[in-house]
Amino acid sequence: MLASAIATLATASLAAAQERAGVVTTLEGKVTVVRASSPELTPLKFRDAIFVRDRITTGKESFARILLGGKAVVTIREFSAVTITEVPGVATVAVGSGRVAVAVARERMRPGDLVEVRTPNAVAGIRGTVIVAEVFDEQHSVITVLKGVIDVTRLDAGRAAGPATVLNALQQVTITGPNPVSAPQPISIDAAQKMGADFRSAPPRNAPSASTAAVSQGEVERAAKDMGSAAGAPVATAASA
């Protein structure tokens, strides 16, 4: 009886660890993943599935784009570490280090759905928004909004501390140590264009169809265009790359 119960719990734990969260749509350079179900560092490949609690890291001159649940695109620049988690209604992109952009398609969100972006010392809840999160160390992060409106709250030991700060398009805040979230600071169109360009790349020409790999080429292209238009600059798509 006990052995059966243990086996059932183990199976349930494995199933939870293998819950699919998204799929890789673009990949350049050295990108690795550590699965929740295995401690091994594994090279990540185009079209690979991303599972809940996967930890993705990028090396020098590396880049990854992930379609998350058909409603958000996560773009990871070099020297970054990201963990994807999910509970009903809330998908969380935890940025441990580096630079990450998240573009959320509002029309794909259901009532009550939320995408969170977490750094070691802050959290932003986003819907229909394009933001960039930069983590310099555990006590210093910067969050920038290229499109939309978000709330940013400081975290202390993983818990919300202090009031939320409203951040509009073309604004950014800095979160440092035990200090409150800084007052929103405007960024110039030139700065936004440069930031958007850092996260743009043409989607792969032969991306699989949604029916075969849960990826819609159209969704990826729209997200890439959204990233560019939010920064006021055009973006090359697969057809024009």
Could you please describe the fold and organization of this structure?
It is a single chain. The chain is α+β, with helices and mostly antiparallel strands and 241 residues long. The chain has one domain (16-230): Sandwich (Jelly Rolls), CATH 2.60.120. The chain is built from 4 helices and 17 strands. The protein has a 17-stranded mixed beta sheet that branches. It is globular and about 40 Å long. The N and C termini lie far apart (60 Å).
First-last Cα distance: 60 Å
Helix amount = 10-25%
Report the CATH architecture.
Answer: Sandwich
Mean pLDDT: 80
Report the principal-axis shape. globular
Write down the CATH class: Mainly Beta
Rg on CA atoms, Å: 18 Å
Number of beta strands: 17
Give start-end ranges of low-pLDDT stretches: 2-12, 202-221, 226-241
Order of helices and strands: HEEEEEEEEEEEEEEEEEHHH
The number of distinct helices, counting runs of at least 4 residues, comes to 4
The biggest beta sheet, please?
A: 17 strands, mixed
Q: What percentage of amino acids are in beta strands? A: 35-45%
CATH domain fold name: Jelly Rolls
Number of separate domains: 1
Sheet/helix structural class: alpha+beta
Task: Name a few traits of the molecule.
241 residues, Jelly Rolls, 4 helices, alpha+beta, disordered N terminus
